[in-house]
Structure formats: structure tokens, C-alpha cells
Amino acid sequence: MTQLNLKVRAKNPQFWISVALALGAPLFAYYGISGAELTTWGSVWKLGTDALSNPYVLTLMGASLYGALNDPTTKGFGDSQRAMSYHKPGGGR
Description:
By secondary structure, this protein is mainly alpha-helical. It has 5 helices and no strands. The chain has one domain (6-84). Helix 2 (13-31) packs antiparallel against helix 4. The protein is elongated, with a radius of gyration of 16 Å.
């Protein structure tokens, strides 16, 4: 069974940066927008609803998110047994 040590990953700011970039970059690239164009909550909401109704954008976001979650140092998808034993980022037990 594939497992990710999400409790520990969630404590690492780098994890959240990777997730934000994985989800945001495809949106910004596909729709050709910059952050300066998202000046109201309405514009953010519209971007989100447009993305959720577009299978191509969802596929791009999913592929990008897979890359952010996958640990290329392990076989398959998931964390190693060693990483699963961590209680804090950086290998802390």
C-alpha cells in the first residue's frame, strides 16, 4: 500500500510551497494571467471555477501535484519506511 507521511510533510513550509506552485503554475500558464490580475476575491473565484470546469487544466494540475508529492528516491509512489517513521521534517524522530 502506498503511503505518504503527510503529518510530517504538512509541518514543512517547502511542502506547501511545492503544492501551491504545482496547483498555481498550470492555472497561471494556461489562462495567461499574472498575480496582479487577481485583485478581487471574485476574480480568484472565477479562476477557480473556470479551472474546475476544464478537464485539461485539471489534468495539468494533477500531473504537477503528482510531481510535488512523489519522492524520486523511492521505488514507486510513496515514502520510504524510514521516512514513514519521521515525526518532524528533516528526519527527526
